[in-house]
Amino acid sequence: MRQTIIENPIINSPYIKPNRHFKFSDDGITNEIVDGRRSSAYFIPIASPRSKKKGGQYTFETEWTQDRIQENELVNQIRTRLDRWRADKYRGVSRVTRYLLEYWQDPNREKKLFFCQIEAAETAIYLTEAADLYGDGWIANTLREKNDQANSSLYRIAFKMATGSGKTVVMAMLICWHVLNKKTNPQDTRFSDAFLIVTPGITIRDRLRVLLPNDPHNFYRQRDLLPADKLP
Length: 232
Description:
Blueprint: E1 20-25, E2 28-35, E3 41-43, E4 53-54, E5 57-58, E6 69-71, H1 73-87, H2 95-104, H3 115-130, H4 137-151, H5 167-184, H6 202-207, H7 219-222
Antiparallel strand pairs: 1-2, 3-6, 4-5
Helix pairs in contact: 1-3, 3-5
């Protein structure tokens, strides 16, 4: 496989929707820049005659070649719906939700949030507050079907974000969204004011203390996720 050297891999701003990406060819990634956001996809490892068996298991080739790309159809469909909803100025959301979305995206804010963080929060909000209005109830049905195939007793929605993209910030954003909506309308069962955070160990648990409102370094204040008059 030919090795491609990309001298400057950063071609988009982290604060706006990606509008360029590096093209993939049959030989893998190239340094050719293509307009538009890259579709969500993953690469399928394929066993080959050169694969070796180690410890009772075969190793797989994992070159990033075009013929091994599998598109994430559901993710790309949801992105398309989000684009439409975003252009429609978030129609269908509560007054509180609209306030938060505008606050998080205020062009004058000092501590700007990444586009990927905003999009993750938008996705949760759309599925909860606006999808049915736009005739997209099929998304929730699809997620339920996937959950039933894995563990029908535990309903889950996953947000897959790259290391360093700010997943903890997104968790704090979602807590803000839930709590403020619940406080405004306690009868709305779509929202909650109680949260269970599960971590794989003590180290991660300690890192997530920033999600506790009484922590002196909580993200609600540190990352300016709420204005001063709404801080806990």
